[in-house]
Structure formats: C-alpha cells, structure tokens
Amino acid sequence: MSYKLILTADAQNEETDAYNYYEDIRIGLGDDLLSALSKYYNKIIKNPFSFSFIGNSKTLRDDKIDRFPYVIVYLISGNIITILSIRNTSRRPFI
User: Where do the domains of the chain lie, and which CATH numbers do they carry?
Assistant: First the structure.
C-alpha cells in the first residue's frame, strides 16, 4: 500500500519552532533538524506499522529521532499517516 503523509497545523508549528530554535543556536543546525525529520518521515511512510504504540492507545504511534531530542507522534488511517506532533522530549516529554 502507498501511504500519504500529512502534518497537522500543530505539528507544522512545532517543526517551525524547532527549526528556529536550532538556527538561533547555530546557522545550519535547523537545516540538520529538517533533514533528520525528512529521513524519519520517509522511514514512517515505508513501514508505518513497525513503530511502537504510545501507552495503551493502540492508535497513536511514535518514533524518536536519533540526533535531536524529538519524538514524532502519528496515527494511521487507511493510507493516510497524520503527524500529530513533533514533541521535544526535553521540554514536553508527555502528550
């Protein structure tokens, strides 16, 4: 099955905030974050069911980014993968 990935407005805002935060630290670091996110988006699209459920929800899944302290929270509905949140695990570790 071919999957389509979409980001909610909240996830887009979190991605933008994270980008700006890392760019303020060092020019180019925000771009590194976006590259890492893109890598993980592609990983999720290729095999969305391979990542763990969050708690007992049996609907929400997550994937932790290796280099940055972020978790991508998503759900699958048919062939649509919806990124609900890009959570900073240092500032807001729980949903």
Answer: 4-88 (3.30.2310.20)
